[in-house]
C-alpha cells in the first residue's frame, strides 16, 4: 500500500508499506444514478446538497451567461451552484435522465453511509479500496501497469488538454463516463481510477503516518482514485496509491463511491 514516489508529500501517500486486510467483497462498479434513484424512491432520503441548497460544480459545465456565484479561493474552477444535486448535476435545468449508468455525484460521505445501510453494505476502508483497485498488481501506479496510456490507448477517464480551460475528450468523455466504460482490472473492478473520486470509510490520517493514525480533522475522510478533472499539470492523483480528503458533509460533481461487504 502507498508509494515511495508520492508526488504530493503532504498527502501522506508515502512510504510504501505492507498492510493486511481480512477477506471482503466489493462492488465491480461505482454506485450509479439509477441505483441511487431506487434508494431515494424507497426511502425518501434527502442528500446533504439538497438540504443545504447547493453543491460545487465545475465551472466548465456552466453556460457563459450563468449568474456569478462564489468560487473556491484556491480552485476557482469550482463554483457554488444553487440547486445542484445528484439528480441535477449542473443545476436545476440539468438532469441525469440519460445518465443512469454514470456514477452518482453530489453525494457526501454521510449520504454514502445512508445508502450503504439501505443496501446492506458499507464503505470500504482505504486499505481495502487500494488492494481491490490494484487488481493483483504490486507496486504499479495504475490498475493495468506503469503507463497511463499504454500503446496510446486510454484506460481511464481523466482530463486531456489544458486544464482548466480545454478538455479535448480524447478518452471519449468530458465529465463522467458510464461506470463500465473501460476495461476492468485483474479483480474485475471498473473505473477505479479516473471518472470520480471514491469515498472510503477512513478518517484522514496525518501525512506520512499509517492508515489508522488519528485524524487531523474529526470530520475529514479519505477519498481515492482521482477523477475526470485530474491532469498531470496540477493533480496527478489518478493513481491507486494517491489520496486526498473531503469533509463528511461536502459534495461535488466529481465524487462518488462504491460499496464493500
Question: How would you summarize the topology of this molecule?
Answer:
Elements: H1 33-43, H2 48-52, E1 54-58, E2 71-72, E3 75-82, H3 109-119, H4 126-134, E4 161-162, E5 166-167, E6 197-203, E7 220-224, E8 243-247, E9 255-256
Parallel strand pairs: 6-9
Antiparallel strand pairs: 1-3, 2-3, 4-5, 6-7, 7-8
Task: Write out key terms for the chains shown.
261 residues; alpha+beta; paralog of FGE (formylglycine-generating enzyme); 4-stranded mixed sheet; 3-stranded antiparallel sheet; 4 helices; 9 strands; 15% strand
Tell me what you see in this structure:
With 261 residues, the chain is of the alpha+beta class. It has a single domain (1-46, 102-261), classed as paralog of FGE (formylglycine-generating enzyme), CATH 3.90.1580. Helices cover 14% and strands 15% of the residues. The chain has a four-stranded mixed beta sheet with strand order 8-7-6-9. The chain is globular, with a radius of gyration of 17 Å.
Amino acid at each position: 500500500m502507498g508509494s515511495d514516489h508520492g508526488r504530493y508529500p503532504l498527502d501522506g501517500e508515502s512510504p510504501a508499506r505492507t498492510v493486511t486486510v481480512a477477506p471482503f467483497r466489493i462492488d465491480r462498479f461505482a454506485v450509479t444514478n439509477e441505483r441511487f434513484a431506487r434508494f431515494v424512491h424507497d426511502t425518501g432520503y434527502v442528500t446533504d446538497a439538497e438540504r443545504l441548497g447547493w453543491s460545487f460544480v465545475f465551472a466548465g459545465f456552466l453556460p457563459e451567461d450563468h449568474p456569478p456565484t462564489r468560487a473556491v479561493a484556491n480552485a476557482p474552477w469550482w463554483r457554488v451552484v444553487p440547486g445542484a444535486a445528484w439528480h441535477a448535476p449542473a443545476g436545476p435545468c440539468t438532469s441525469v435522465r440519460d445518465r443512469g449508468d454514470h456514477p452518482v455525484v453530489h453525494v457526501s460521505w454521510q449520504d454514502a453511509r445512508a445508502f450503504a445501510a439501505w443496501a446492506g453494505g458499507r464503505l470500504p476502508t482505504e486499505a481495502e479500496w487500494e488492494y481491490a483497485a490494484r487488481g493483483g498488481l504490486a507496486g504499479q501506479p495504475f490498475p493495468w501497469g506503469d503507463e497511463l496510456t499504454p500503446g496510446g490507448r486510454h484506460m481511464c477517464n481523466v482530463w486531456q488538454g489544458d486544464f482548466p480551460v480545454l478538455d479535448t475528450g480524447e478518452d471519449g468523455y468530458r465529465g463522467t463516463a458510464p461506470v463500465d466504460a473501460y476495461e476492468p482490472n485483474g479483480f474485475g473492478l471498473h473505473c477505479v481510477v479516473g471518472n470520480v473520486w471514491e469515498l472510503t470509510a477512513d478518517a484522514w490520517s496525518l501525512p506520512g503516518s499509517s492508515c489508522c493514525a488519528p485524524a487531523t480533522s474529526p470530520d475529514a475522510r479519505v477519498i481515492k482514485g482521482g477523477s475526470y478533472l485530474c491532469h498531470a499539470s496540477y493533480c496527478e492523483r489518478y493513481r491507486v496509491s494517491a489520496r486526498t480528503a473531503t469533509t463528511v458533509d461536502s459534495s461535488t460533481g466529481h465524487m462518488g463511491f462504491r460499496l464493500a461487504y
